[in-house]
Amino acid sequence: MAATQSQSASMDTFVSTLQQRFPQISFRAADTFYWSPREQAVHYRTTENATDTWSLLHETSHALLSHTDYGSDFELLSLEVAAWERAQSLAKELDVPAIDTEYIEDCLDTYRDWLHKRSACPDCGQTSLQTSERAYRCLNCAETWQVTQNRHCRHYRARQRTT
After folding, report:
1. What is the pLDDT of residues 41-72, one digit of tens each?
2. What element of type H or E holds 122?
3. Domain 2-16+24-116 class?
4. Under a CB-based contact definition with an 8 Å cutoff, are residues 160 and 137 in contact?
5. Distances 75 to 56, 68, 95, 112 between C-alpha atoms, Å
6. Strand 157-159's sheet: what is its strand order?
7. Measured distance CA(148)–CA(145) in Å, rounded
8. Beta bridge partners of 127
C-alpha cells in the first residue's frame, strides 16, 4: 500500500509541475488517459510508472497542439503522431526519461490496426478509400460501407445498398 501511495504522490507532483507550466490546461484524475478539447482538460490515472508518465505527456501534447477534432481516420493517425513527437520534446524540456520509441510505435500500431480494419472491404478484403467521415468505398469491387464514428468500439462495417 505504501508503494501505491508513493506512486500516487509522485504522479500528483508531476501533474502539479504540468499545471504550473501550462495553466491554460486543466488536469483531472480519471480511470484512463485522454484529452478532452470540450473541457480543455487532460484526464489522467493517478498511478505512476514510465508508461503512465509518457501517456500524460502525450495527452498534454494534444492540448498544447490544440487538437480538437479530425475529419478522417488518417487525420486521426496524423494527430497521434504529432502528439507523440511533441511529447518527446516535452519529456526533454521537463527532464523526464526519454519516451521509449518502441512504446510509441506500439501505441501508434493500435491506430494503424484500427484504420486497417475499418478500411478493409467487407466484400473483397482490399484496403479501400475513405470518402467521408464515416464512409468507405472499395476501388477494387466498388463496395461502399459505413463505419462507426467511435474509435473505441468494435469495427462494424455496414454495407450501403444501392437501389
Report:
1. 999 998 878 799 999 999 999 999 999 999 99
2. none
3. mainly alpha
4. no
5. 21, 12, 30, 12
6. 129-132, 135-137, 144-147, 157-159
7. 10
8. 120
Cell triple for residue 61? 501534447
* Residue 80 C-alpha from the chain's centroid: 5
**C-alpha–C-alpha distance, residues 8 and 16, integer Å:** 12
Whole-number Å distance between alpha carbons of 127 and 26 = 39
110 — phi, psi (to 5°)? -65, -35
Domain ranges, ordered by start, for the chain: 2-16+24-116, 128-159
How far apart CA 36 and CA 111 sit, in angstroms, is 18
**pTM score of the predicted model:** 0.85
Q: Which residues contact 1 (CB under 8 A, 6 or more apart)?
A: none
